[in-house]
Here is the input.
Amino acid sequence: MFYNGANCDIYIGKGAGKKLLNDMRNASKSIKIVSPYLSPFLISELISFRERRLNVELITTDNIEDFYGSYERNIHKLIIQNREIDNDAVRKREKWKDIVRKLTYIGFGLLATLIGVAYFLVDIRVAVFGLVPIVIIFLIIRLYKNKIRSKRIYSYWYSQLFPFKVYMSPDTTDLSDTFIHGKIYLIDDQIASLGSLNFTGSGTKHNYETRIRTTDPNAIKEIKQELNQLMHYADLPERDIQFWGRQLYKEPIN
Here is the structure.
């Protein structure tokens, strides 16, 4: 995209990020972000914006700095695990459990009877032959317990806390040589900021950064279209949310 002649303000230095955050915290409708890198506390900011019922959109890359860290990792907060129950499987599993209970009662009942008979008759052959059906019963019990353990009654799928795209970088795929390195912030579809700072703690607090801020209507229109293209129509490889969800969450089957 190329746009010429926009009116804008220029920010250079450590204060560039602070002023950007002030604009974002004063948003009343929407916040849209393109940043290849993220920090946990700023993801928390986005979550708080979402809780204020702002429309939030995020475009980032799979170079998320703390993806392989602790439970408090960025992507974990943005992906919601949804679970569905297979009611037919539940009923079948409960039926098998009932069979196991009944067979257990029968097995121990037969064992107690066998011990009593063998004791009074003092005949080892009674014990040997009497054990055969008991062993068969407990083998059947074991079979059913294995079926119960392996029966899947839950299935899982994953959704996003708010719309976001995670594009794959050339470091992680051979499918593209394009790295989404731009940093764009669009607030309420009225204020746009572009520059060097990532949506990270160092970018918004400590680094010497450059940023331009514009409210020029024509420039805003062009930037909004570019973000829409990147969010919905970019022909670039992206991380699958279902795949990441399975990596992040446990999926017990029953």
